[in-house]
Every structure is written in C-alpha cells, then in structure tokens.
Amino acid sequence: MARVVVDVMLKPEILDPQGQAVQRALPRLGFDGISDVRQGKRFELEVDGPVDEAALARIHDLAESFLANTVIEDFTVKVEEAAEVAEAAK
Amino acid sequence: MTARIGVVTFPGSLDDRDTQRAIRIAGAEPVALWHKDKDLKQVDAVVLCGGFSYGDYLRAGAIARFSPVMEPLIEQAKAGLPVLGICNGFQILTEAHLLPGAMLGNDHLHFICRDQRLRVENAETSWTSDYRAGQEIHIPLKNMDGRYVADGYTLDKLEAEGRVAFRYLGLNPNGSLNDIAGITNEAGNVVGLMPHPEHAVEPLIGTGRTDGLPFFTSILKKLVNA
Questions:
Q1: Cβ contacts (< 8 Å) between B102 and chain A: which residues?
Q2: What quaternary arrangement does the UniProt entry report (chain A) (predicted)?
Q3: What is the pLDDT of residues A50-66, one digit of tens each?
Q4: Which of helix, strand or coil describes residue B18?
Q5: Number of structural domains, chain B?
Q6: Is there a contact between B124 and B189 (Cβ–Cβ < 8 Å)?
Q7: Which of B101, B57, B95 is nearest to B74 (CA)?
Q8: Is there a catalytic annotation at residue B196?
C-alpha cells in the first residue's frame, strides 16, 4: 500500500481571512517575524495496489474535479515514500 | 394547469419546506425531489435551497454537486431548464460550474444573519421578470460562506453582459467582489444568490415584506405563458 498526498491551497490572489486571523494571533503568542500565513488542506490517500502512472493520473483527475476547486485553488499531488510513511507512523 | 417546480432535499438542507411553501403561495405546485433521485419527475423548473448539504464538508456545495439528482439537473439546465440556487443552492451551482466563480467564507469569519437591502440589477431572467431593474428589495441573508469571488476576466464579462442579477446595498456583508449578491448564466435560466427570497413571501414573517415573492411569481408566469 502506498500513500499519495494531495495539498490544496487557495490561489495567491484569493484573500485568506483564516490565514490572516492565524497570523494576527502570532505576536500575542510570542512568535515574531512571521509576516504572512496562508491556510490550506492536505489529503492523504491510501492507495491499494501500485502507484503507477495510470493511478497517479486518476488521482490527478480526482484532485482537479473534486478535492480542489480550480476556480479558487491550486493543488499538488505527490507520492509519499514508504520510509516517510513509516517515520510518520512512529 | 399550473407549473410544477421541484425542490431538492440533500442531507443537511434546511430551507426545503420554506421553499415549497413559497412556491405554493405564488400559485405553483411544489414537487419534492430527493438527492438520490435519478430523474427530475418531469418538473418545469427546480430550486436548490439553502442549508448545509453534507455539512459543508470539503467546500460548501462540493459534495452535493456530485449527487445522483445533479446529473439530470446539470444536463437539463444546460438545455434551458430554469434553476434557482439560493444560498447553499448558489454554492452548489458554482461548484457544478453552471454559474461562474466560487463562494468562500465571509471575510470577517462570522456567520451573518440579518435583513439585507439589495438592488435588482437584471429583471430579465426567468426568476426576476416580476421585478423592475434598479428596484430595491429587503430579504433575509444568513450564511457563513457568502463571499463571491471570480477572476478579473470573469467579473468584467459578468458586468459587461448584465449578468450581475443582484447587488448588496449599504455595507458589503461578506467581502463579495463588486458587492455581488447574485448572478445569472448567459441564457438567464440559471440564477443563484446568497440571500433568501423564500423567507420573505408573507407579511407576517421575515422582513415583514413580501419582497421575495416575485422570484416565484416570475417563474410561474414564464412557465404558464410558455
């Protein structure tokens, strides 16, 4: 089994009030020097079978049509290596 | 014979009963449609009502857009079936790309619920012909994700083609670009807006006015005279 990660972010030109609210809270918490925060979504897909080109193409379609709304969001698809998955599980 | 207007209920829809009631008050026959229906029961028009379909998970309207009932709805809307999307229904119509742009969280991050002043900008759609262009109306507004956004090209096109159907008056309640409260597709059969006309059809409740009723009388006249 392999894991494919889809990250979805609002496009740079779209106002992100949630990210701004997080950013504004930082000085109060003692975190200085962070000038901007943008908040996105991360999807971890556990894929049965091999993550070959065909499987990645299908996941790309899924991200484009459903996980992200490309009118307002950009997305990236990446395969997480087995070692990283094991590390994350520790 | 009167017109039959479908109202779709998704898991999490809130305003289906009020919408059916508004349709009845206008003199048409409401027809309940279920999100799992694979056909539209030969209705003459459809309203997608307000609420939080599928809990607004992923994005407002994003999951409802792939419901079985949406397949014939999208196909027939493209062929001219009149469709009105109110609030969550508007969000579903943008997710289904029947209307351009997208809806995002209010810029102030709060749920908003108030009587809202609007200007009718386009009184020539299937759902707005009983208004006058430029008319001011008061109807309730209640939502979390009411910020309309679209890229510059799309906004310019909407403005140039008179496809901004409703605009907020007074303070912009959610950060919508160009104060947009509602838009129409090119053909004028698909209209979406955030405020709730179905809550303003009787003097006793809502804003105390019946400013929302012309949505439902407009479509009835269009269908009966067709």
A1: 69, 71-72
A2: Part of the FGAM synthase complex composed of 1 PurL, 1 PurQ and 2 PurS subunits.
A3: 899 999 999 999 999 99
A4: helix
A5: 1
A6: no
A7: B95
A8: yes
Closest in B101, B105, B109 to A71, CB measured: B101
CATH number for the domain spanning A28: value is 3.30.1280.10
B107-128: average pLDDT: 96
The residue assigned the tokens 């990283």 is A84
| pLDDT, position A5 | 97
Give the best residue of A22, A62, A66 to mutate against chain B (max B CB count within 10 A). A66
**Catalytic member of B35, B121, B198, B199:** B198
Q: Give this complex's ipTM.
A: 0.86
The tally of domains found in chain A comes to: 1
Give the domain CATH number at B202.
3.40.50.880
Residue B93: CB atoms within 10 A of its CB come to 30
Question: Residue B68 is part of which domain span?
Answer: 4-225
B22-70 confidence digits (pLDDT tens)? 999 999 999 999 999 999 999 999 999 999 999 999 999 999 999 999 9
Mutate to test the interface with B, among A6, A8, A13, A15 (most CBs of B within 10 A): A15
SS3 B131: coil
Indicate yes or no: CB of B104 within 8 angstroms of CB of A72.
yes
Range of the domain at A20: 2-89
Residues 6+ apart with CB under 8 A from B47: B5, B6, B7, B8, B19, B23, B83, B84, B85, B86, B89, B198
Model confidence at B209, pLDDT cuts 50, 70, 90, reads: confident
Annotated catalytic residue B113: no
Q: What is the pLDDT of residues A5-16, one digit of tens each?
A: 999 999 999 999
Give the model's pLDDT for residue B97.
Answer: 97
The interface residues of chain B toward chain A in range 48-67, judged by CB-CB distance below 8 A, are 58-59, 62, 66
Provide the angle, in degrees to the nearest 10, between the axes of the packed helices B16-26 and B213-225. 60
